[in-house]
Amino acid sequence: MLSKSTPLKIVKKEKQADKTYLFRLEGSGKKKIKFDYKIGQFYQVSVPGIGEAPISVCSFSEDFLEFNIRGVGDVTDKLLELEVGDNIWIRGPYGTSYPLDKLKGNNIMIIGGGTGIAPLRGALKYLEMHRADFERVHIFFGCRSPEEVLFKKDMHHWDRIFDLNLTVDKAPANYKGKVGLVTKIVEESGLDNRNKVVLICGPPIMMKFVIKTLESMGFHYDQIFLSHERRMKCGVGMCGHCMISGIYVCKDGPVFRYDKILGMHE
Amino acid sequence: MGKVLEKKRLKEFLSSVSKGAELIAPVKSDTLRFEIIKDFDDICLEGRPLFPVKKFFSPARHDIFKLNLADKNKAFEEVKNKIKPRVIFGGRLCDFNGLLRLDKLFLAKEFQDEYYKEAREKTLLIGINCVPAPSKYCFCESMNLDKYYDLFFHDLGDKYYIEAGSPKGESLILKLEDYDFSIPAIKCKKHLEKKDLSGFYDSPAWKDGSKKCLNCGKCTAHCTTCLCFDVIDEVDADLKKGKRFKEWDSCQFTNFTQVAGGFVFRKDYVAKFKHRIYHKLQYFRERFGMDMCTGCGRCIESCPRLIDFTETVNKLK
Ligand SMILES: Cc1cc2nc3c(=O)[nH]c(=O)nc-3n(C[C@H](O)[C@H](O)[C@H](O)COP(=O)(O)OP(=O)(O)OC[C@H]3O[C@@H](n4cnc5c(N)ncnc54)[C@H](O)[C@@H]3O)c2cc1C
Ligand code: FES
After folding, report:
1. Which of A163, A250, B51, B143 is most buried, by the most CB atoms less than 10 A from its CB?
2. Residues of A in contact with B242 (CB under 8 A)
3. What's A100-260's CATH class?
4. What are B28-51's pLDDT values in tens digits?
5. C-alpha count within 13 angstroms, C-beta hemisphere, residue B75
6. pLDDT of residue B260
7. Chain A residue nearest residue B104, CA to CA
8. CATH assignment of A2-94, given 3.40.30.10, 2.120.10.30, 2.60.40.1120, 2.40.30.10?
9. Is it the case that residue B71 has pLDDT exceeding 90?
10. What is the ipTM of this complex?
11. Domain boundary assignment for chain B
12. Could B75 and A28 be called an inter-chain contact, meaning their C-beta atoms sit closer than 8 Å?
């Protein structure tokens, strides 16, 4: 039922924020693994003896896999204790992805909140590598505070090659960046919906308000792709945990085009 | 045309078809339940067992991996299933139709549950007709059940009329005497009105129907087709070994949809009640073209507050 997990070796571990680390993983044996995951998909990540947690792909490469993990409980806290050289056990990848290869020729808007920025980082890597295929790329990221801003190194890079808009919910008086909710910077951008596709990932409440904002800016639901988070146990459409209406978030999602899931009941 | 078997030859027949296999049939203990038969005289065909046969296809708790915590490179070891061939005797149409529903989940194209698959392949299904309906909670007449079985018995007083539903079943009754009979359909007192539920999500009837609910999960545990599960790790006292096992779970428990930060997607009784019924009567149908309910009435009979979802659904207008 649940396929057997395989070990990957941690080759890099980088602190991103309080209780949040970025892990880079490669094959643990001598043979190189060629990774075949898509942006938006997730893996079931195990700590043997503790349990499993779904974690999104945060990278885009055949040679390695990156996870950005925030410690919020049993499994994720234990994962954060692992160091370079240790094994992480995974099965997957599972679920649907952001259909980036079908979106070529569009302007892309990337809107992320908190740890929801992680899967979008993979998308940005993809966009960078296929830069000529896309029009403008606008990024809108919101984090709780300046210390909670993830991928600071990447942010500088994205700021140079894309249109990066970053905001934090709260900051000390001397903070130079923008302060306020992510919906605010999206609204302020004044962008219209022409030739655009929006990719969103973040907490449910943030996504709800971002969609409202986009709607008021003239965007249609079929221009919006978002990633849902639910409790998951199997990841393969059997255990029932992730079900919303008749939809399995693990198998039919986590990435959905918004018009396809309108009117769903918890 | 079917065959006939005198009741006094039942033991002989069952021992021959279950040779080398476990025989599973209803047994009366605290309540009527399916059990592995040690003594033929324990078999009780009166009444519909309160527990369905699902535990023989996906046990309430079942190990999937052994964990070797000491060996960093071989942490997971698959647990070999030890499923013996078995014969289920005395299952009802609701039971066997339940398996057709579960097949959709556990034998899906992309992902299959090996235990379930093996158990299905190794089990011969011998059913018995329900005339008269064995429980006042039964409403299978409303559920369009299929004639799904290897063999099907109908009680004719001193003998059973037997019909085959598969080549395998047919081969087992070749030697019995031919008999001309047509099995009567099951008649139930209780009915479920079939309706498209999509327009009724906000009906106040759901609240009325669920207000007595205790969230105990008995309805899903007794349900013929509910098999949602949890996956849990357990470590031995020496911290060297452990296991990862699968355990039945219930959408009626609050932590079923709880995520990081303590947020629960379906918190109140109404939302959970609606999810259970919509899953059964709408979502499953949209996906697989059949209801995920076989009208066994076990969820009503097992409920400590006798919550009857058929009353709620029948009230929706
Ligand atoms: C598709 C998907 C992608 C995700 N991607 C990432 C990611 O890239 N990085 C990251 O840090 N986190 C990610 N998460 C969230 C992560 O899976 C949960 O934080 C993790 O499962 C919590 O498990 P735990 O054992 O650490 O916590 P627990 O000790 O189990 O519980 C802590 C809290 O988390 C809740 N919880 C338990 N299991 C889950 C679950 N499967 N999903 C959500 N909440 C749960 C509990 O109810 C409790 O409130 C993702 C979740 C999903 C569904
Ligand atoms: S996680 Fe088990 S069904 Fe989706």
Report:
1. A250
2. 48-49
3. alpha beta
4. 988 999 999 999 999 999 999 999
5. 23
6. 73
7. A238
8. 2.40.30.10
9. no
10. 0.91
11. 2-315
12. no
